[in-house]
Write a structure and sequence with these properties.
The chain has helices at 2-33, 39-49, 54-78, 85-123, 126-132, 137-174, 180-190, 193-219, 225-255. With 256 residues, the protein is mainly alpha-helical.
Length: 256
C-alpha cells in the first residue's frame, strides 16, 4: 500500500513538473512573439480584456476601500490617530489590495474567457487549421492577449486606486467624522508615488500570468464541452494561485 501511495505521489509530482515546464515554454515563446504582434488585434483585445472589465473592477474596489476604512477609521480615532487614516488606506490600497483584487477579478472574468475561447478553438480543430495555413497560434492568439493584459491591468489599477480611496474617504468622513483636510493631508504625508507605481508594476506581472495561464489551459483543453469547462476552471484557479504567489515575491522586491 505504501508503495502504491508513493507511486501515485511520484506520478502527480512528475505531472506537475511537466505542466510547469510547458507553461514556462509557452511564456518564453510568447515573449519572443511580442515584437511581431499585430497592433490592431492587441487594441481589440485591450477593449475586450480591459475596458469591459472596468465596471466590475470599480464596484469591487469601491466597496473594498469602504470596508477597509470601516475596519480602521473607528479604531484609529479611538486611539487618537485619526490623522493617519487616509495615509494608511492609500498605502494599503496602492501596494496590496487594489493590485491583488484587480488581478483576482480580471482572472475570474478574463482568464475564464480566454481559456474557453481558445479551448473551443482547439476542440473544433481551428488551431490545427491555423498551423496548416502556416500561422503560428502563439503569435496569432496568445501574444495579442498577453500584450493587452499586461497593458490594461496597470490602467485598471490606477482607476481602482482612485475609486478605492474615494470610498475610504466617504466612510472615514461620514462614519468616523474625520475631516476632509485631515484625510487628504495624511495621504500627502504618508503615501508616496511609488506606492501606486509599485502596484502598477505588480499589475503588469499579474496580467501576464492571467493571459499565459488562460491560453495554456485553452491550448491543452481536452476534447468535448466537458474538456473546455475543465480548462476554464483550471485557468481561473491556477491564475489566482500564481497571482498570490507572485504578489509575495513582488512585495518583497518592491517594498521591503
Amino acid at each position: 500500500m505504501l508503495k502504491d501511495f508513493c507511486s501515485k505521489v511520484g506520478v502527480k509530482v512528475l505531472e506537475l513538473c511537466a505542466a510547469g515546464g510547458r507553461l514556462s515554454l509557452l511564456c518564453t515563446a510568447t515573449l519572443k512573439q511580442v515584437p511581431r504582434v499585430d497592433p490592431l488585434e492587441s487594441v481589440r483585445q485591450m477593449s475586450l480584456l480591459g475596458a469591459d472589465s472596468l465596471p466590475i473592477v470599480l464596484w469591487t474596489i469601491l466597496f473594498t476601500g469602504m470596508v477597509f476604512s470601516v475596519q480602521t477609521a473607528k479604531e484609529f480615532v479611538r486611539f487618537g490617530a485619526s490623522s493617519s487614516v487616509g495615509g494608511i488606506v492609500a498605502i494599503a490600497m496602492g501596494r496590496e489590495l487594489v493590485p491583488v483584487l484587480v488581478g483576482v477579478v480580471v482572472a475570474g472574468r478574463i482568464g475564464a474567457a480566454i481559456a474557453a475561447e481558445i479551448g473551443t478553438m482547439k476542440v473544433t480543430e481551428q488551431i490545427d487549421a491555423l498551423r496548416v495555413m502556416a500561422t503560428d497560434p502563439i503569435r496569432f492568439l496568445v501574444a495579442p492577449r498577453f500584450v493587452a493584459a499586461c497593458c490594461m491591468l496597470p490602467i485598471l489599477i490606477i482607476f481602482g486606486n482612485a475609486v478605492g480611496n474615494v470610498g475610504g474617504y466617504l466612510v472615514a468622513h461620514y462614519y468616523a467624522g474625520i475631516s476632509t483636510f485631515s484625510y487628504v493631508d495624511s495621504i500627502r504625508i504618508f503615501a508616496e508615488v511609488f506606492d501606486i507605481v509599485g502596484g502598477m508594476i505588480k499589475g503588469i506581472f499579474f496580467g501576464g500570468i492571467i493571459a499565459v495561464v488562460g491560453c495554456y489551459e485553452g491550448l491543452h483543453a481536452k476534447t468535448g464541452a466537458e474538456g473546455v469547462g475543465i480548462a476554464t476552471t483550471k485557468a481561473v484557479v491556477l491564475s489566482i494561485i500564481l497571482i498570490f504567489i507572485a504578489n509575495y515575491f513582488l512585495s518583497v522586491v518592491l517594498f521591503v
